[in-house]
Amino acid sequence: MDMRVIRRLVWSIPLIAAGACHAQPAEERPPTALRDMTATHLPQAAELHALDIALADFDGDGDLDAALAVEGDVNRLYVNDGEGRFAWREGAFGKVPHDTEHVRAADFDGDGHVDVVFVAEDDRTHQLFLGRGDGSFTDASDRLPAMSEGNGLAVGDVNGDGLPDIVVGNSGDGEDGRNFLWLNRADSPGRFADATATHLPAIGNRAQDVALADLDGDGDLDMVVATEAPPTRLLINDGEGRFAEASDRLDQVTPLETREAHVFDANGDARPDILLLNLTSNAGEWDKDPQARLLVQDETGRFIDETQGRLPANRFSSWGGAVMDFTGDGHPDLIVGAIAVPGFEPLQVRAYANDGAGRFSDVTATTVPRSTIGRSWSMATADVNGDGVDDLFVGGWGTQARLLFGSAPANGE
């Protein structure tokens, strides 16, 4: 069993211990910028392994529902009532448990309804469900070209034909660790041609995450592959979905065990940068440095490690996080999941505020409720309650998934 703003692309139509001995009693603490609505707005499942979330309008009522990738159980659909209260629609994705790691949503077959793809690790059972537009689905998993030990997933139009394609990051050894690229067929949307052999480098990399983004400014989607065994990989798209190795453009100053990669413009220079969230080990002993790392793109297209001076120091491991403007100032801030390793002990979710120039400070105490202590996993951000402000859905491994509502800036700007 594996423990574990561009990346969170959903293709759809529609302790902080600062003076712990002087800590205020819970009832006297000032409110935080993010409000924990979990108790009243999410199904309670304290031991669920909800490892990833895709937010999209699956039932056609104009609000965002949630598809959950669940490890060791049946994947779940949570339906939104329009005000951010979610109800579990049991059986939406069948009744068979799988070792699911990731989920993405897109209209793969072009019928105007949002579909869902899941990838699994240990039981190597990837799934495709075609949406009917009313919150029900047809199992079309037989359309996926191959099975594998999947640990990463990304969706996007990599060959410019207007159809969402699928990239699966594989974590096996040798050839089993080679990623998949499945191109959506223009002659039969929702069916896929396996372009792995012709369009991806023949390298196994023990992938844990895949991010698709235009990293070189030529208008097509390139690829960052976060890996369990270094190095992190950068693949450049030729515009037709063929990817070439360009990992030498990444300034990799220390070996990392990376679980997520996020691509966003950290410093406001209109060039995408890369955030890597890392582990010391996969819930084992101390091994690698788990410091989150920020690689800032320079004018030559290289990504320079500028972590020191830009990110708060950390010794916790992070299996997931999100890019989110929780301050409402127009600059991307960061939410970072935290787990203590060795020990695999739950910690509070962290919040890092951007000063506008890509320097981040830890504002957890004023931003994130202490109720977020858990084993946080992958996250998703979007406006789920219709107030025009992004909210945060936090996955969890054996701890309650959490829903945090965002707040509008106090000055109304």
Mean pLDDT: 92
Helix content: under 10%
Q: Give the N-terminus to C-terminus distance in angstroms.
A: 46 Å
Number of helices, counting only DSSP H or I runs of 4 residues or more = 3
The biggest beta sheet, please? 12 strands, antiparallel
How much strand? 35-45%
Evaluate the radius of gyration: 20 Å
Number of strands: 30
Low-confidence stretches: 1-27
Give the structural class: mainly beta
Globally, the shape reads globular
Multimeric state: single chain
List keywords for this structure.
single chain, 413 residues, mainly beta, twelve-stranded antiparallel beta sheet, four-stranded antiparallel beta sheet, 3 helices, 30 strands, globular
Brief digest:
Helix content is 3%, strand content 37%. It has helices at residues 38-41, 196-199, 364-367; strands spanning 35-36, 49-56, 65-73, 76-80, 86-88, 98-106, 115-120, 127-131, 137-139, 150-156, 165-170, 180-184, 192-194, 207-213, 222-227, 233-237, 243-245, 257-264, 273-279, 293-297, 303-305, 321-324, 333-336, 339-340, 345-346, 350-354, 360-362, 376-382, 391-397, 402-405.
